[in-house]
């Protein structure tokens, strides 16, 4: 993922970096996938897209009462994913994917696009909100949480310390037991 979003000096290189969305002039087709809450953030970017429907596609996950020019709205993430996969399946060489939303959403879409055959350099992402996925090393499950330094795993209940290590493969931060002597501190206090 190319990026210009600043990281804290000395932060681990695995942390994802993001940039404001910009149209790729060489692209033959543009697909934008966005959470409804992020629509206003990327309005100016959307306005730069070509107006031909076969060249530009805007897919929005969320409430259909929002308005966006030439947008298809999906109330569930599963419906959005099915439509995106069908769009990518029909795509030709030269497609660029632009994603905007919270970190968990961005990486779920990136993972799906990668599984469909897109290369990382064909995908650009802009971060809109803090919720992020945390991968629990104890039960091998990923869950979405606010950006807190410690969370309770929704899968196994262990109190997790969220490490500053991000796995692009699983699209999540690493969560390890915060206190091995008292792993269930939150529930048994």
Please report the distance between the alpha carbons of the first and last residues: 42 Å
Helix content: 10-25%
Radius of gyration: 18 Å
Average residue pLDDT: 87
Q: Report the CATH architecture of the largest domain.
A: 3-Layer(aba) Sandwich
As a percent range, the share of strand residues is 25-35%
Per the CATH scheme, the topology name of the largest domain is: Rossmann fold
**Main sheet makeup:** 5 strands, parallel
User: What would CATH call the class of the largest domain?
Assistant: Alpha Beta
* H/I helix tally: 3
Number of domains: 2
Order of neighbouring strands in the sheet with most strands: 3-2-1-4-5
What's the CATH superfamily of the largest domain, by name?
Nucleotide-binding domain of ferredoxin-NADP reductase (FNR) module
Number of strands: 10
Description:
- The structure is a single chain.
- The chain is α/β, with parallel strands linked by helices.
- It has two domains: 29-129, 3-Layer(aba) Sandwich (Rossmann fold), CATH 3.40.50.80; 132-177.
- The protein is built from three helices and ten strands; from the N terminus they run βαββαβαββββββ.
- The protein has a five-stranded parallel beta sheet with strand order 3-2-1-4-5, covered by helices on one side. A five-stranded mixed beta sheet has the order 7-6-10-9-8, with helices on one face.
- The chain is elongated, with a radius of gyration of 18 Å.
- It starts with 28 loop residues before the first strand and ends in a 12-residue tail after the last strand.
């Amino acid at each position: 993922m190319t990026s210009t979003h600043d990281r804290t000096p000395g932060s681990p290189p695995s942390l994802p970096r993001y940039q404001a969305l910009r149209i790729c002039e060489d692209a033959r087709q543009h697909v934008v996938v966005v959470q409804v809450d992020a629509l206003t953030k990327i309005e100016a970017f959307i306005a730069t897209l070509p107006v031909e429907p076969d060249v530009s596609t805007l897919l929005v996950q969320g409430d259909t009462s929002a308005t966006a020019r030439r947008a298809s709205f999906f109330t569930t993430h599963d419906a959005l994913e099915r439509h995106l996969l069908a769009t990518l399946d029909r795509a030709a060489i030269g497609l660029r994917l632009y994603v905007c939303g919270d970190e968990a959403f961005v990486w779920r879409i990136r993972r799906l696009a990668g599984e469909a055959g897109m290369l990382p350099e064909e995908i650009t992402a802009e971060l809109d909100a803090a919720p992020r996925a945390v991968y629990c090393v104890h039960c091998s499950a990923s869950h979405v949480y606010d950006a807190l330094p410690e969370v309770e795993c929704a899968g196994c209940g262990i109190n997790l310390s969220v490490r500053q290590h991000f796995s692009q493969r699983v699209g999540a931060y690493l969560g390890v037991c915060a206190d091995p002597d008292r792993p269930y501190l939150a529930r048994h206090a």
